[in-house]
Amino acid sequence: MASLGKNVLTAKGVTKTYQMGDVEVRALQDVDAQLREREFLVLLGASGSGKSTLLNILGGLDSATSGQVHFRDTDLSYAGDSELTQYRRRHVGFVFQFYNLIPSLTAKENVALVTEIADDPLDPAEALELVGLGERVDHFPAQLSGGEQQRVAIARAVAKRPSILLCDEPTGALDFQTGLIVLQVIERINRELGAATAVITHNAPIAAMADRVITLSDGRVTTNVVNESRKAPEELSW
Amino acid sequence: MTSLHTKLWRDLNSLKGQVLTIALVVACGIASYVTMRSTWSSLYESKDTYFEKYRFADVFASLKRAPESLVPSVEAIPGVSRAYSRVVQMATVPIPELTEVARAYLVSLPANREPALNGVYLRSGRLPRLGTDTEAVVVESFAKAHGLMPGDSIPVVINGKLRDVRIVGVGLSPEYVFLGGMGDFVPDDKQIAALWIQRDVLAPAFEMAGAFNDLAIDLQPGADEKAVMRQLDLLLEPYGGLGAISRHKQISNFLLESELAGLDQNATVVPAIFLAVAAFLLNIVLSRLILLQRQQIAALKALGYSTLSVTFHYLQLAFVIVALGSILGLLLGAWLGGALTELYAGYFRFPTLVFRVSADVAFVGVGVSFLAAGVGAIASVLQVTRLSPAEAMRPAAPARYRRGLLDRLGIAWIFGVSSMMVMRELRRRPIRLALSSLGIAAAVGIMVVGRFGSDSMDNLIDVIFHKEQRGDLTVAFLQPQPIGAEHELEMLPGVLDAEGVRMVPVRFSSGPRWRESVVTGMPTPARLRGLIDRNGVEATLPTKGLAMSAKLAEILSVKVGDEVEAEVREGKRPRVTLPVATLIDDSFGLQAYMNIDDLHRRLGQELSISLVQLKVDPDGLDELRRRLKQMPAVAQVTIKSVVVERFKGQSAETMRIMTFLLSLFGAIIAIGVVYNNARVSLSMRARDLASLRVLGFSQREVSSILLGELAVQMIVGIPIGLVLGQYWCQALMNTNDPETYRFAVHVSTASYAFATVVAMGAAVVSALLVRRKLSRQDLIEVLKTRE
Ligand SMILES: Nc1ncnc2c1ncn2[C@@H]1O[C@H](COP(=O)(O)OP(=O)(O)OP(=O)(O)O)[C@@H](O)[C@H]1O
Ligand SMILES: [Mg+2]
């Protein structure tokens, strides 16, 4: 088991509300959560429970209505656009639920988009190799299957060697075999590069890979459990 | 090349159609601006250079006769730098082929040197020399009209004696850019000449040896022109001075300046509207194009790109398009401007007419376009980055549609699901509908403005030559003739009707206010002369008292029932008081009319006429002209159809070309806007539409949703555009000096139809292109990719 260190990310009392006309939607309510150095965290929860919202706030893609978020010693709660941009650029690898690839760029170019602005990136081809897409580097998103697009998104996220890797349902669209490959990649990044990793999933068995599992329900944290031991991806089945 | 650059080129490539049409919109805006402004400034600069180089005088004075020894006294007037004395006389040129006798200004040239002022530019040949023959340089317009070349001879009646004058040169002078009297509406090159002859030849012929009857004066810089003219008038008074005239009032230059001023105003308002509309449309279209990439903008932000670099990326996209349009526009503007200037060269008689695109014109045209594009691009990017990346990246939330009136009435089913979707989409995005319609309206509006020059020209011809002057021929007398002259003319063969009028130049005054005008005395009711107001309605002339332009009454501050002072500006210069009987809200000039008997009674004169309008049988025209030529009292005969033709041939020709260009530009802009509008809404709703196809809607039903939206935009936009066009024309009209020109805005039905048809045509073509795009759309691909 990896040695877990201090918190990389700490969320305290985070609340997120959306105003929809006269209705107020509480996506997160007073949530405390933390991501430790080198840790592999899994976020579970029913659809609409607030997982993506939490991950977006942790990744600096969105800001909380109230509460605090710290990255190491930096307070992100009051960070402005340029600080958040720097934070995302330097430290965060994000795999979006809806991939968000640039349709006019090939797989390799989508990855290069990130490596060009990162400090010590992997080579884009190498990153795609890592997710098993070495053969498809010159394909445009529209020429790739959903799972392949997802893997490009993962290559794009890991290529910068992020200190934090945040993945929103990375296996959601994938069959078991491909999902396994993707999880192996993520696990390897976590292990070899030491990136603190948070993964959202609907597949409860995946939680067995994690160092720790947080469950959300109706915008609140219901459980926050440390696993005794961490299984390798290939030991899982779902 | 970074990935963002790759993205830039790929985007440009996949948006080819839109890039091209937007660039064309920019190009048309810039081209119309550059063409018209540069043409004007080129004409203006050419004029200035010409005047400078050929020493056009500052002040002119004519007199009966003064000894040469007076010249030093003129030069002694403070402010005068140089006085150049000449002999200038009128003569007739009885060229046999001409039905009417041509007139000529005879202008003296000093022996063996250049004239000190009002130099002569020689197009060909040489200056006259002393010898046995009478040699002359002839003005180019006359030479061209008659095919005269150095070596030819023409008959000239000089002070009553017929002489053969040998042409030795063809030339031009700043003094005679436009030849002809003030009274000539459109001078005929064939009928008016200027001949430069050695003073040693000319002076003796008019008993002017050692004397002069014309002065051209150059002022010192900063001299008080008015004071000089006052002193000059005092000095020349004993010598029969006719009053000094400033350069501004010199006939040729006055016409030239008013022509240039007219061009200037046309070349200011119209291209400004075009440029502004193009910029506005550029702004809308680019904004939408960029907003389509909302999710990509958000993704770039999420990946760690700064707002600045994302903005810069989209600015590049915008600027590549604008740069393309600018280059096209500048090239097109330079080319068209050159061609237009060439066209004017036949009209403005300058030695050389150099076309040049001035840097500031190019700068304004290009600058405005870049600004509009830049603002549009930045605003769109910021609109997206204002949202958190998480929010902007999410596929737009399903929109909240509301049930509209049709639904509530329960009759929506009549129109089918497609039209219901159209209506709901439009209700959901009223601002988008408003902007799209406004864009279409602006495009329609500029097409109307573009054709307006031609419309006003037609209207002017219609009012002046058809409604006001109803005769075919006008005979002007040298002196007012007794009324019997009218009968004499009526008796001539081929004359169907004759009607004489008396023109009396007057200065009206009322208190401290005064204006120059002419009272036209005519019979009531007149058969061949109409008084037409701004609405094209004929006004009736009262049998007693004045009918005057409402504008003149306004300036004099008099109303119906008041009296005005009239000082007659001819003969014994009597002063009379005339009652104002009626006002005519007419379209141009400061006019006054009176019953001809009443006019003479009040002047205390016998009934007389100075002008007769004739209605003639076209077959007898030639014979009639020959007979008129033999009548000594006749000063000038004008044939209406010839004047109309000449008028149409001159300013109207350039006007029509301008109109053609502007309506072409307007049409291209309209097409660009409509097409982009349709394309953007296709892209915006590609997913919705693809989903509908998957749900089982037919190709037809889906495209009818998209085209329905376009149709609604057109239906809203076109009428607004026609009104907007009319409004812009009014603004254009308002730049005229109301004392000379105040026509009601008259946009022809043809122009409205043109604007409407082009807009509809653009819509149909765009609709077809969009339909094709839609049918080629790979449903799976659209549904699969998430931007
Ligand atoms: N922009 C928004 N406006 C209004 N409500 C929102 C918005 N974004 C999310 N929500 C609401 O916030 C709640 C949490 O959404 P979130 O996307 O975090 O759920 P999730 O746990 O990721 O669900 P899923 O597993 O389906 O992705 C949901 O009820 C959702 O409807
Ligand atoms: Mg989610």
Quick synopsis:
With 238 residues, chain A is an alpha/beta fold. In chain A, 28% of the residues lie in helices and 29% in strands.
Overall strand count of chain B: 22
CATH superfamily of chain A: P-loop containing nucleotide triphosphate hydrolases
User: How big a fraction of the residues of chain A is strand?
Assistant: 25-35%
Poorly predicted regions of chain B are none
Major beta sheet, strand line-up of chain A: 6-7-8-3-9-10
Total helical elements of chain B: 24
Say what oligomer this is: heterodimer
How can the largest sheet of chain A be summarized? 6 strands, mixed
The radius of gyration computed from the alpha-carbon positions of chain B, rounded to a whole number of angstroms, is 34 Å
Structural class of chain A: alpha/beta
First-residue to last-residue Cα separation of chain A:
23 Å
How many strands of chain A?
10
How does this structure look, described?
The complex is a heterodimer of chains A (238) and B (787). By secondary structure, chain A is an alpha/beta fold. Chain A has a single domain (38-62, 92-235), classed as P-loop containing nucleotide triphosphate hydrolases (Rossmann fold, 3-Layer(aba) Sandwich), CATH 3.40.50.300. Chain A is 28% helix and 29% strand. Chain A has helices at 51-58, 81-91, 107-115, 124-130, 146-158, 176-193, and strands at 7-20, 23-36, 40-45, 66-71, 74-75, 92-95, 164-168, 196-200, 212-217, 220-226. A six-stranded mixed beta sheet of chain A has the order 6-7-8-3-9-10, sandwiched between helices. In chain A, a hairpin with a 2-residue loop joins β9 and β10. In chain A, α3 crosses α4 and α5 packs parallel to α6. The longest helix of chain A has 18 residues, at 176-193. Chain A is globular. Chain A starts with 6 loop residues before the first strand and ends in a 12-residue tail after the last strand. In chain A, 52% of the residues are buried. The model of chain A has no long low-confidence stretch (mean pLDDT 89). Chain B is of the alpha+beta class and 787 residues long. Chain B has three domains: 56-254, no CATH class; 429-468 and 645-787, no CATH class; 469-644, no CATH class. In chain B, the strands form four sheets. In chain B, strands 3, 4, 5, 6, 7, 8 and 9 form a seven-stranded mixed beta sheet that branches. In chain B, strands 13-14-20-17-19-18 form a six-stranded mixed barrel. A four-stranded antiparallel beta sheet of chain B has the order 2-10-1-11. In chain B, α7 packs antiparallel against α14. The model of chain B has no long low-confidence stretch (mean pLDDT 87). Chain A binds chain B through residues 52-53, 56, 59, 61-63, 81-82, 85-86, 88-90, 92, 94, 96, 98-105, 109-110, 112-114, 116-118, 141-142, 146, 149, 156, and chain B through 2-4, 6-7, 10-11, 14, 295-296, 298-307, 385, 388-391, 393-395, 781, 784-787. Adenosine-5'-triphosphate binds next to β1, β2 and α1 of chain A.
